[in-house]
Amino acid sequence: MSVFAAAGAGLLCAGRLCAVRAVLPCLWRGKYFSSGNEPAENNPVTPMLRHLMYKIKSTGPITVAEYMKEVLTNPAKGYYVNRDMLGEKGDFITSPEISQIFGELLGIWFISEWIATGKNAAFQLVELGPGRGTLLGDILRVFSQLASVLKNCDISIHLVEVSQKLSEIQALTLTEEKVLLERNAGSPVYMKGVTKSGIPISWYRDLQDVPKEYSFYLAHEFFDVLPVHKFQKTPHGWREVLIDIDPQVSDKLRFVLAPCATPAEAFIQELSQRISLTGGAALIADYGHDGTKTDTFRGFCGHRLHDVLIAPGTADLTADVDFSYLRRMSQGKVASLGPVKQQTFLRNMGIDVRLKVLLDKSDEPSLRQQLLQGYDMLMNPTKMGERFNFFALIPHQRLHGRNHQTNACQSKPSPSPVAGFGELGWR
User: Fold this and answer.
1) 129, 176, 217, 403: least surrounded by Cβ within 10 Å?
2) Are 118 and 410 in contact (CB under 8 A)?
3) Cis peptide bond N-terminal to 339, omega within 30
4) If DSSP states are collapsed to H, E and C, what string results for 286-331?
5) What span, in angstroms and rounded, lies between the C-alpha atoms of 146 and 140?
6) Angular region, 293: left φ>0, alpha ψ -120 to 50, beta rest
7) 28-67 burial code (b ≥16 CB/10 A, e <16)
8) Rounded to the nearest 5 degrees, what angle is found at the Cα of 419, between the Cα atoms of 398 and 198?
9) In b/e form, how buried is each residue of 216-250, taking b as 16+ CB within 10 angstroms?
10) Cα–Cα distance between 267 and 68 in angstroms, integer?
11) Confidence band (pLDDT; 50, 70, 90) for 20?
12) How far apart are CA 68 and CA 361, in angstroms?
């Protein structure tokens, strides 16, 4: 536990998740219903709307998963591809943008798991959808502060990012300016560099292109934007909800019900397979539920709720993560922990201890106020404290104190508790 005291007390690809559906005829006979009460004049004809209407006219109604994939990650017109949607000027704010403590505690979590599983000689830290790179920057700062603990470990950073705009922002946040970035748009590794602390860093568009080595995976507010399939129960059984052109109103979309059942694919098996084969762990932080909610598909624009079918391409689309679904889709290849509320996870990780350290070191009233406000936003049950959850995938061996691989360079692990999912003994 000295490490904690020293610290201050497609398939998993947002750009390519394949939607499986039957080939549908253009003559549609399914049940339809409106997405809301937005008048036609409030529905501007965006380039994305024109693209979707052409697609639907050509092949028939599309799944909600296909709609999300096109609207969010289309290479030419997608919401995520060519804009910075984070922060006060964007459409939403994430935990790392609120307080440095959040990322610091996640950095400690990865080091804790690395120690608990035998101090492997090397590990990859893989982040899915890294935003601006703020969270990873806070994690890497902890790695630097605990360099004496990690001195014999070869670390590399691997970012899965489909947005060119965000990857450039990440590079500015994380990399050493004096070392030129290597760029190759046609390669699976489309950008390479070195972090400010000297760690190799690479960018990919697809998780499947990341080397299958011993890795720790981080998915913070990533799964909620992966394309989802939407279903509705009818007297004839479950039917998939699709998106079609409204024949009554020009340039408007509507929801329709498929006349027959269509299949949906799982999206977490790649992570589970990697962890079961090579070891490591995945830490998933997102807002969601454990199978207790139904329809949570919604849009956000300018920090406000937005009709998901209005002006596609101008708003973020999201759906709460069903953690019970993630657990089922791991198919027993790995063990799962959680979900636990963010308030509980961060308290178990020692957020109160870390806050006290930072407050004691700060003489600036504005900084102290900022720290307290950030803490309140992260921990308050009416804000993020109980809305966000943490969920982990770990090898079955981890719970029994056995290493996935053993060699002369690794120390023998013990079946210690997994940090954050149980109270730590601080001293």
Assistant:
1) 176
2) yes
3) yes
4) EEEECCCCCCCCEEEECCEEECCCCCCCCCEEECCEEHHHHHHHCC
5) 10
6) beta
7) bebeeeebeeeeeeebeebebbebbbeebeeebbbbbbbb
8) 90
9) bbbbbbbbbbbbbbbbeeeeeeebbbbbbbbeeee
10) 15
11) very low
12) 45
pTM of the model: 0.78
Cα separation of 166 and 23, whole Å? 35
pLDDT tens, position by position, 306-360? 888 888 888 888 888 889 888 888 889 999 999 999 999 999 999 999 999 999 9
